[in-house]
Amino acid sequence: MSDISKADLNDWNTRVIAEFRANSGKVGGQFEGAPMVLVTTTGAKSGKQRTSPLVYLADGDQVVIFASKAGAPSHPDWYHNIVANPVVTVEIGADTYQATAVVLQGDERDRIYATQAARMPNFQQYQDNTTRVIPVVALVRVP
After folding, report:
1. Which terminus of the chain has fewer CB atoms gathered within 10 Å of its CB, N or C?
2. pTM of this prediction?
């Protein structure tokens, strides 16, 4: 990681996760008012459970997340985890459920990313700051 160490990021994530859970999905600071989700993945190498606080977009009845990593040149760790192990736990507000992570492709990916960038312009900046195509992932609730 360039500007922030992994230890600092883990501490920051831990604080956001605690605030999310204490306030039924609401957090303050830079994410105040943003739609937040906690996604728990299984580590691709370690097999350990890892929880990531992420901004999401509701697209119909789908929850969609973005592997932006603020425009860094590499994908976030959670993305590698879901590619290896697509069954995840999703927490939105007080609701917790199992889902299957599906990486969107082509026109559907482009449409949803454009919608997110229109709602939160920093996502366009993230894409502009990297040469990789930022993955878009639908979290499909397991019945």
Report:
1. C
2. 0.89
Round to whole Å and give the CA distance between 51 and 6: 14
Tokens 């878009």 correspond to: 136
Work out the mean pLDDT of the chain and round it to a whole number: 92
Instruction: Please report, as a single letter, which amino acid is at residue 112.
Output: I
What CA dihedral angle connects 41, 46, 47 and 48, to 10 degrees? -60
Which spans in 4-121 are helix H? Answer: 6-22, 77-84, 106-119
Q: Determine the Cα–Cα distance for residues 140 and 72; give it in Å rounded to an integer.
A: 26
Q: Which residue has 């990313």 as its token pair?
A: 113
> What is the C-alpha to C-alpha distance for residues 44 and 55, in angstroms, rounded to an integer?
22
For the four alpha carbons of 64, 86, 12 and 1, in that order, the dihedral sign comes to negative
From CA 72, how far away is CA 132, in angstroms rounded?
9
Residue whose tokens read 């929880």: 51
The rounded percent of the chain whose pLDDT value lies above 70 is: 94
Residue with tokens 């929850």: 63
**Is 41 strand, coil or helix?**
strand
Q: Specify the DSSP class assigned to residue 76.
A: -
Q: Specify whether the CB–CB gap between 71 and 126 falls below 8 A.
A: yes
The alpha carbon of residue 35 and the mean position of all alpha carbons in its chain are separated, in whole angstroms, by 11
